[in-house]
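Help!! Second protein's tokens look totally different from the first
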Amino acid sequence: MEKLSKWAEEGSIVKNIETTKTHYWRSILYEALEIIEIYRSLKSNESQDITRRLKQIAKGPMFLADELVTSAPNAPRHYQFELLVASRFMNAELNIFLDEKNDLVIRFANSIIPIECKRPQSFTQVNKNIKKGCAQIKRSFNDLPIGSRFPGILVFGIEKLNNQYKKILVTSSVEKAKRSLDVKCTDFLQRYLKRVQEKGRTHVGGFIVTLNTMSEIAGSLQYGTHLTVSYWADQQVADHIRIHLCNIN
């Protein structure tokens, strides 16, 4: 916004847009609409941790495309992904809480499901992210009273791996958009599922892969075309938290 204000003062907005990579400007709309979705879904949630994470989001690089492969400078957008996942669970009428032990937790009856969200910047980070996420879930799982324990969930956002934030997916129908994203999500899930299922990881009950994109469907520009594919170690988990295993909006 600072750049846009400066260019407006100079009367050079059009000139600068024309000489700047177009995916920078697509990412502005992409992210602004994500923040709107987060606000609409979580505005009734009274957790102070939402406010803390929103403040952190504002400290990140100006453009999504300016993120580095190294993880530290990208923390603000990791927080944004966590809140986006929280908003979608909230929209599914799940009882979501944000705390310091896990990115999110789902509470139902006397049980707690810990959730860890990861958005790797490169394929070289994926195995490290899986190992870290599983360890974080295990610590929380072991700290819970036996009667409250429920297998946790790993959620991976793979937009950066596919450079999806740079693209507009152009298709003639929602069905074709879904098929296009399904190939990428399913390939990722199948590729890394064995790592999630490694011996001793019974504390991880779900592996969710998400992919968001801007879409032009039948000539209409749409935000929020997203696909989710999932694996569940226990069908009880999938049934109880009521996630649509494949969805597109």
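Here's the second one for comparison:
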Amino acid sequence: MQSRHNAATQQSLLHIEAEWQGLSETWRPWGFWVREYGPLPIGAYDVDFQAVPRRVWFRDRAGLRPENVWKWMRLVAAQTLAPTARTGDQFPIGQTAFAPYAGSDYYYLEVLWAGRSGTGWRVEPGPDERIIIKNELWIA
């Protein structure tokens, strides 16, 4: 089970990075956070933005790197108290997340690149290095 989770984590990170690379320069944030959460109940269609993730990564021009979860939580606190990190409809820093569905092989995966550019999916780890998108749960 752990190796399947590791494969799903790697595939999620690769998918998120490919989504970011595929954005036009106009819409691509200069960096993005990736949050990994614990199991979600079957049927959940998003993660709680204020929940504490298990792990986080940050990606910018220097590459993808693990970060301290509390760096992410400080950003959440700052956004809750004084939401200033947003410029119009575009977030200068992307926000992405993934989590397994409890008792299932499926995962929840979301990307939010700007106020009107994001998607949430139910996905499944594929046999190669790519995830299989089962269905879209929401589009922003």
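Reply: Different proteins will give different token patterns, so don't panic. The beta strands are 31-36, 55-60, 63-67, 90-100, 107-114, 117-125, 131-139.
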